[in-house]
Amino acid sequence: MAVWTHVGPEPIDPAGVLARVGSADDGAVVLFVGIVRNHAEGRSVSGMTYEAYTSMAASELAALASEAAERWQTDRIAVVHRTGALTLGEPSVAIALSTPHRAEGYEASRWIIEAIKERLPIWKHEHFVDGESRWVPGRTPPTPAAS
Amino acid sequence: MAVWTHVGPEPIDPAGVLARVGSADDGAVVLFVGIVRNHAEGRSVSGMTYEAYTSMAASELAALASEAAERWQTDRIAVVHRTGALTLGEPSVAIALSTPHRAEGYEASRWIIEAIKERLPIWKHEHFVDGESRWVPGRTPPTPAAS
Amino acid sequence: MQVHTLFFASYRELVGVPRLSVTLPGGSRARELVVELRARGAPFDRLPERPGLAVNEAWASLDTELGPGDEIAFIPPVAGG
Amino acid sequence: MQVHTLFFASYRELVGVPRLSVTLPGGSRARELVVELRARGAPFDRLPERPGLAVNEAWASLDTELGPGDEIAFIPPVAGG
């Protein structure tokens, strides 16, 4: 088994991501799926376009999944982030992992989605039903430690 | 949509449980799957038999899922617990739910699996590779508040 | 009055049967049922003095009052999940 | 030396182009690139003085030293997930 990650425009099949993890050593599987929802801050949303610096997002995602693998001692991790125009209800991100015990599974899953939001060079353009759109406010990207 | 729960001997299909949740109002889906693993406390396990007070386990599971639904304000919850003889790697429990935001999804999922372990009248008979078996040590069942 | 007992998992193995009907005086509480069973000697005296209990599929205590036809389950420490 | 800049999302919209090659003195740091671009006036003066940066797909700062052919991305606040 090995850590698997992908960034790209292909539709995400959560069950397929789920099928990439699990082992006879593991007692717990946790899957997180982020989906495009129909409202944001009280406004009706019609869709979301994900722009990415794809090559860097892919290497950052691989790096953070490896960090999680080392920290929680499991290589049964699969993470995919979608790019491009998504309609309501479509998955934008899916994180599947399996671990011997459940506590570490929930922890690792949560850590990965937070790290994705902090470290992946990806941006969301939110389209509202009223025809307006905006870049979703994001987080200051990381800077390297002073050398 | 409505809370769905089941206790019974049918094999669990995690993708099918996952498919029962999700809504255009929700931005997050969390699935937890508990599986029979090949070791426990350093011993090799060959399988696990789940005995249940099935009718009561079913009503307790429905009750705790409804509690979670009220507490986290989502009726997109599906939970199934299996009974009978399971082989290594088979799911014993699956919990799928969707919520507007991810924090509540992880919280609700974790709360449900802990409540299952505290409140469902279910027992595990663990079979070891060396031929021995034992009832897995459990938790003192709840007692009603003094009236 | 007659009540119906159920024994699960390790308690079922202890007493050797999964169920048993018991006659008790009217107005008995669960405590009286446990005492009555344990007084029968082996194998029922292997049951704990204060087992986990459910009456009619609801969690109960030794103080829970019983009625005719009630189903009383003896519940060992639970281990679902 | 020549370096290659990339502008994403809101920064791409601000400057109107997704990429641009820029000639800088050898030994320049990212700071000099930002200053050079902003000095060009509209629309480049809309870029912030301290944008998020990546050099060759690694997170960088204004102090990061640049080399010939480097790819420098201007990274607005990120919002994946």
Unreliable stretches of chain C (pLDDT < 50, length at least 5) are: none
Residue-averaged pLDDT of chain A, rounded? 96
Task: Tell me the fraction of residues in β-strands of chain C, as a range.
Answer: 25-35%
How large is the share of residues in beta strands of chain A? 35-45%
> What is the number of domains of chain C?
1
Q: What is the class of chain C in the CATH system? A: Alpha Beta
Number of helices of chain C: 2
Instruction: Summarize the amount of helix of chain A as a percent range.
Output: 25-40%
Query: How does CATH name the architecture of chain C?
Result: Roll
Oligomer state of the chains in this structure: heterotetramer
- Radius of gyration of chain C equals 12 Å
Number of strands of chain C: 5
Q: What is the correct CATH architecture of chain A?
A: Alpha-Beta Complex
- Separation of the first and last Cα atoms of chain A: 36 Å
